[in-house]
Amino acid sequence: MSESLPSTWPGALSSWRAYAHLYLPFLTSFLCIAFAPPNTSLLPVAASAIPTYLLGSLIYGTNPAPPPAERVRFTRQRFSYRVLVLFTYGRLLGTPLNLLYFAFDLFANYMLVPLLIREDVPRRSDLLVCVLWTTASGVLLMLVGHGGLLGLVVGSVDRTLWRATYLALVDGMISTLGRPDTVSSRGKITVVGVQVLLITLFTAWTRFRMTYSREELQSEPE
């Protein structure tokens, strides 16, 4: 179920350098949250990806991305990684954890997803494949409805595919920002674009959760 980490890539770097473009956006987000007023526009937050990239380039340098065959997607490196990422699904919006459903999600992810998505194919990301499958299952679910045995089966498959898409999204972002291609112009633009998305979404989500929690505390009777 887990794959061993590659060690033959000629451009191998120490982890703190290889993943500089991945962890620096989170540091930038924390700085934006800590020092910028909550109602600040997200435009300067998004623009902070540029100095983040420049700082990351000083640490990471200019290196080519390893070939697809040398890449191991994050959630397939260890079982604990997949558990951790699946755990965050739903928790991001404050949905309470249901251990029974969570156990089903883990089981279905290991049993069903490999039947639909060839995990042995050395792609950089499974996101597009997962999106196509999730779209198809959503259309089928609308046609058959949620009732009856067929609706239960299709609904379970749709639930599993949504979570597989989330895993693929996380894998794709880690794959793009971890040991990225910073030699070609396309690679540099891709890294900056993903960092813009990551910084903006993480900052906006954190602001939302902080505002929501504050409103909940204020609405509680004394």
Measured as a percent range, the helix fraction is 55-70%
Mean pLDDT score: 84
- Give the beta-strand count: 0
Low-confidence stretches: 1-10
What class, by secondary structure content? mainly alpha
Transmembrane segments: 20-36, 43-61, 129-154, 189-208
Keywords: Membrane, Transmembrane, Transmembrane helix
Summary tags:
11 helices, 2 domains, disordered N terminus, globular, mainly alpha, 222 residues
Would you give an account of this structure?
With about 220 residues, the chain is mostly helical. It has two domains: about 15-65 and about 180-205, no CATH class; about 75-180, no CATH class. It has eleven helices and no strands. It has helices at about 15-20, 20-35, 40-45, 50-60, 75, 80-90, 100-110, 115, 125-145, 150-175, 185-220. α9 (about 125-145) packs antiparallel against α10. The protein is globular. The N and C termini lie far apart (about 50 Å). Mean pLDDT is about 85; it is low at about 1-10.
Short summary of the structure?
This protein has 222 residues and is mainly α. The protein has helices at 15-18, 20-35, 42-47, 49-60, 74-77, 79-91, 99-111, 113-116, 127-144, 148-177, 185-219.
What does the secondary structure layout of this molecule look like, with pairings?
Layout: H1 15-18, H2 20-35, H3 42-47, H4 49-60, H5 74-77, H6 79-91, H7 99-111, H8 113-116, H9 127-144, H10 148-177, H11 185-219
Helix pairs in contact: 2-4, 2-11, 4-11, 6-10, 9-10
